[in-house]
Amino acid sequence: MPNTALELEITQLHAEICAGLADQNRIMILYELSPGPKSVSELCVSLGMAQSLVSRHLKVLRERGMVTTERRGTQIIYSLGDPRLIEALDLLRAVMRDDLSRRAVLIQSI
Questions:
Q1: Residue 66 domain-assigned?
Q2: Nearest 10 degrees: CA dihedral of 34, 38, 44, 46?
Q3: 12: nearest Cα among 62, 51, 64, 54
Q4: Structural domain includes residue 91
Q5: pLDDT > 60? residue 1
Q6: Other CB atoms within 10 Å distance of the CB of residue 94
Q7: How many CB atoms sit inside 10 A of residue 48's CB?
Q8: What percent of the chain has pLDDT over 90?
């Protein structure tokens, strides 16, 4: 018999990761960190977002282990917690692209 308590815990952790990806700003932050580490101010400039908004989303990502931090002098530098996050996001985009293509075919057949 499977360990249902363990399964529930794993499912909850999975849901928390998905919740971390459930905002377009957080997805954009992750993609922005893909080439390399950045400070909050660098993220603000490159994404055109207010510092308070970027910081709030980074907090969510940090709590889920999706980003890590390193202090450099007075700045905190953010990095991807795991580069496979970008692979997962790219895979989800491929699924979305295929679904949109399928829908376009259906619409054209009307």
A1: yes
A2: -50
A3: 64
A4: no
A5: no
A6: 10
A7: 7
A8: 85
